[in-house]
Amino acid sequence: MKLKFDTGTLGAISEHKIIIDLLSQGFMVFRNCSPTGSTDLIALGRGEYQKPLRIEVRTVMKFENSGKAKPKYQLKKHFDHYAKIHKVTGEIRYVPALPGPPLAAFLPKKT
Predict the structure, then answer these.
(1) Domain 7-106 adopts which CATH fold?
(2) pTM score, two decimals?
(3) CA distance 45 to 23
(4) CA torsion 55→30→93→45, rounded to 10°?
């Protein structure tokens, strides 16, 4: 049996999946406690990229081929990135892409 969730619960699940993804990339992540806040997450960058990133999480059924946000989802002044998570596959895309090198650049090199 497939579970069905209301939109608020589905949104909270998506936010937690994005938090896990960002933490695994080396970001420090803070979640908005208010359901009506201006942004969903704040991520503090890694390495020299310490600028706070305001992230809006969206659960989507399909991605645009270009990887850019649909006109409906153009970035607003109160957030810097969309974190889009596919409802079925769980694939995550950030629009625009997150700054800085991949996490591997911060891991100790094997000797």
Answers:
(1) Trna Endonuclease; Chain: A, domain 1 (3.40.1350)
(2) 0.76
(3) 10
(4) 90
